[in-house]
Amino acid sequence: MRPTIRFLTDELIEKIISEATDILCTLGIEIHNQTVLAMLSDCGCRVNIKEHHAILTQEVIDKALKAAPESFGLYDVNGKQTNDFSGSNVYFTPGSTALNILDPQAKKMRKPVTADYVNFVKVVEQLTHIASASTALIPADVPERISDSYRLFLSLLYGRKPVVTGAFTIESFNVMKDFQLAIRQSSDALKEKPLTIFSCCPTSPLKWSDITSQNLLDCARYFIPVEFIAMPLSGFVAPVTLVGTLVQHTAETLSGVVISQIANPGTPILYGGSPAVFDVRHETTPMGAIETMMIDCAYNEIGKYLHLPTQAYISLSDSKQLDTQAGLESGIGAALAGLSGINNISGPGMLDFESCLSLEKLILDNEICGMVFRMIAGIEPREDFPALGIFQELLAERHLLISEHTRRYLAKEHFFPGPVIDRARRSRWEDEGSLTLEQRAHREVEKLLESYEPSDLPEDIKKDLVKLMNDEAGRHGQDNLPHRP
Fold first, then answer.
1. Residues 28-69: tens digit of each pLDDT
2. Spatial CA neighbour of 164 closest among 132, 124, 117
3. How far is CA 482 from CA 89, 140, 154, in A?
4. Where are the domains of the chain?
5. CATH fold for domain 66-377
6. Most buried residue among 213, 331, 347, 413 by CB atoms closer than 10 A?
7. Dihedrals φ, ψ of 73, to 5°?
């Protein structure tokens, strides 16, 4: 039996959805994109072009929900499926768009550069429990105008795994789409085997900017999956109650579902988000707060009730170092996300309110993810009944270390983490240098960087990617890209 956890009753879910749709059909939503407003008007919604405002209808919302697929797959650069976003299947991906990286030597945050990003891709490639990569860092050694495309370029050039990404400008999308077409070779092949997920973020409260609206339209045109990242902040730009925040999150996310599905019915989507409670003491948005995690798990239940695959930013920490707080918050989040059946869990590797990546934390989080997978596999009998025979053997031999039953089921029953998790006796720990968790994690990072094997993407496709990136950089006045490791 797969263990599960729930925070909402079906009755409460229905009430939240009803209130959210009432808001959209009464108060409406602000949309700063003329094309989207025109499409909504054509569908019978009341639109005020001058005020950038649309009032939706129940019919439009219901039609969009019916058109949205209940599941979809994600595939690596070689076309091998890595993710099946259906049911309660769970996958982990690192957090995204960190402005800083934690330097393990100086123990301080600094701006990342191209070499840091490449190292990140090389490490993620070899982490067993991380299914997809993300454009996790923003390299500071390239102009901001090409930052979006450059991050995806490096991910696809050095890695095999699919990528969770996004664009902060309308112009970036075209070359990011062309990267994917270069790998898949056709639009139909890209539709059949999606390579990326684009994050599209409404602005709380109840607003879509021109950029994010256009990103939705552009992704829909090519059936590129999107995840909606609504970010209501409880007690600041959302009601202070968790239920009130869920109503707002539902309204904002449903509006995104409508935009994507009227643009191109059947576009794959993840019902996701990155909401948080607002800590009035420090004016911060703690992703490691238990209430933030509860909201994430609860809106996942709403998404599943609507028959949509889900995503959440959870399993990350607000700590500034790889310390006890980092393990506490990340571990609780990962466990709750796994038990809730959130399909795409974003966050491993992240610190400081999603603004800093640590490769060492990513190593630790990979082990947390492995523990979560063992937990949600549950407990089931494995030739345990009748029990008499195994206990007769135990009493006769006084141990079961080499029992056939033990050898058959040890690897299935027991999860053995890597060396970053210390389970040795103290004497051995001392003999091996009394290393701290951070030191062990850094040692593993160095091992993975040494053992990395280049992507087996055909060389002609790699050359196409390089040419596309160089052309894009040239259009923005960057004649020479930074040296790549």
1. 999 999 999 999 999 999 999 999 999 999 999 999 999 999
2. 132
3. 39, 10, 12
4. 66-377, 388-416
5. TIM Barrel (3.20.20)
6. 347
7. -110, 165
